[in-house]
Design brief:
Helices cover 30% and strands 25% of the residues. The chain has 506 residues and is α+β, with helices and mostly antiparallel strands. The protein has three domains: 162 residues, FAD/NAD(P)-binding domain (3-Layer(bba) Sandwich); 191 residues, D-Amino Acid Oxidase, Chain A, domain 2, CATH 3.30.9.10; 94 residues, no CATH class.
Length: 506
């Protein structure tokens, strides 16, 4: 990474390194703006790595009449499948029919709308299935004879954030992780409001403070968005946030087929059971009002029991909390719409632009599927306020490694030819994490270095430290990869020790 010259005046300072902030930085950088992105922790270290990892329209949102949001998300589902085919892939869902919760006619109407609200090119449509003959019926309890099948997409959420940040940097943006924006204050250059800019005080992890000037600021701080806005401007924001905690559990795999499940709970919520990391099943999510610190969030015993209970209603394998191997929780900063039920709170977003004393754009709400179109709209607003004009571009330009006209299989084969000693699972992980760039990372030399942990070689660790802002074992094992699920404590410690010795600040 190149050294940062903090005295530069940037066109845009983006505060927040989640999916929205990284997407905005990428879009703005590609339009020729001078961009700085700052994140107080690691990229995607909060909500953006704690999702259900789905690129989906949101079938259940139709029940709350959110047709516009679902259509927007379905359109984006197609776009994202096209620009990031290595980290986003089609996933077929099965809904076992529970007549006491929703009648079959209601589900059929919902699936018809889901198939037709937006043009569908890459995914199959929905259909009814006989669970007595369908592979997805085998692990289910007796009594589930009928079901429905439809398509959505799976995404490696944390890598989606990292790849957006990487592309932003490759378009000239400065990306600083573990750097906190303490405050922003307006400063006028000549007394003209049109020439005012923001002075931002930043503090790095060593406690050193720096000053950055920017013509505009984007507040993409997620759960902190309302507070950040109100601290920077004299008036309160027009939009409020409702913090909803969503938790997931991971257990040993409950089924051996490639289908995922959407399960109707007795309280009319929806719980997903999704094949995860080859050997596991992910189950989630919950929807609970959250009033604590968004940086310190964890699953509650009641949530674990709830998710186990919903799984046990459907699957033959009985789960108890002791079967949970891993869990994560995220705080969703949802747009306040005064819904009485947390599950009914809208997943749409709002962009609030303050033009004076200098442009400040705050992002409220949103979901991972619509991050790109949110970023596009945000950069349109900021560019207009700065008097800049540039064409939209992110809907057709692949994310780093996403230029895969023939899919990832040829990449896997070429990597296997160069490294026949490496396991098939590791080769597959490389191809899907790095796409076409895996050939540059791993194919130029047969020397991968020492195998620090099973499937993790020094060459990859060097790459992640030097190019993807990785600094800690959690950065590598839980966000840049999901290897943490597969490693024991000794292997995890070896990775941490290697990073302390060989990792370098960026």
């Amino acid at each position: 990474m190149t050294a940062v010259t903090y005295s530069n005046i940037f066109d845009l300072l983006v505060v927040g390194g989640g999916v929205n902030g990284a997407g905005i930085a990428r879009d703005a950088g590609g339009r020729g703006l001078r961009v700085m992105l700052v994140e107080q922790d690691d990229l995607a270290s909060h909500t953006s790595s704690a999702s259900t990892k789905l690129i989906h329209g949101g079938l259940r949102y139709l029940e709350f009449m959110e047709f516009g949001l679902v259509r927007k998300a379905l359109i984006e589902r197609e776009v994202l499948l096209g620009i990031a085919p290595h980290i986003i892939s089609p996933l077929r869902f099965v809904m076992p029919h529970e007549p006491s919760l929703r009648p079959a006619w209601m589900i059929r109407i919902g699936l018809f709308l889901y198939d037709h609200l937006a043009r569908r090119r890459k995914l199959e449509g929905s259909r009814g299935i006989d669970l007595r003959r369908h592979p997805s019926g085998i692990p289910l309890r007796d009594g589930f004879d009928r079901g429905f099948e439809y398509s959505d997409g799976w995404v490696d959420d944390a890598r989606l954030v990292v790849l957006n940040a990487l592309d932003a940097q490759e378009h000239g943006a400065t990306v600083l992780t573990r750097t906190r924006c303490i405050k922003i204050t307006p400063t006028a250059t000549t007394g003209s409001a049109e020439q005012a800019f923001w002075t931002a005080s930043l503090r790095d992890e060593a406690g050193k403070e720096h000053v950055v000037r920017a013509r505009a600021v984007v507040n993409a701080t997620g759960p902190w968005a309302a507070g950040f806005h109100d601290a920077a401007t004299p008036g309160r924001s027009k939009h409020g946030l409702r913090l909803i905690k969503g938790s997931h559990i991971v257990v040993r795999k409950l089924f051996d087929h490639p289908y995922a499940y959407i399960l109707q709970a007795a309280d009319r919520r929806i719980v997903f059971a999704i094949p995860y990391e080859r050997d596991f099943t992910m189950i989630g999510t919950t929807d609970i009002e959250y009033h604590g610190d968004p940086r310190v969030v964890a699953i509650d015993p009641e949530e674990t029991a709830y998710l186990c209970a919903q799984s046990n209603r459907y699957f033959k394998t009985t789960l108890t909390p002791s079967d949970v191997l891993s869990s994560w929780s995220g705080v969703r900063p949802l747009l306040e719409d005064e819904s009485a039920d947390a599950r009914a709170v809208t997943r749409d977003y709002a962009l609030e632009l303050e033009k004076a004393p200098a442009p400040l754009l705050s992002v409220f709400g949103g979901k991972i599927t619509t991050y790109r179109v949110l970023a596009e709209e945000a950069v349109d607003l900021v560019s207009s306020s700065l008097g800049e004009t540039a064409r939209r571009w992110t809907d057709s330009r692949p994310l780093p490694g996403g230029d895969l006209p023939d899919g990832v299989e040829p990449i896997e084969q070429r990597l296997s030819d160069v490294h026949p000693e490496v396991s098939r699972n590791t080769i597959r992980r490389w191809a899907r994490a790095y796409g076409s760039r895996a050939l540059d990372i791993f194919s130029r030399s047969n020397d991968l270095g020492a195998e620090i942990a099973p499937g993790l070689y020094e060459s990859e660790l060097h790459y992640l430290c030097q190019n993807e802002w990785a600094r800690t074992a959690d950065d590598v094992l839980w966000r840049r990869s999901k290897l943490g699920l597969h490693l024991d404590a000794q292997s995890t410690q070896r990775v941490a020790d290697w990073l302390k010795t060989h990792g370098r600040p960026q």
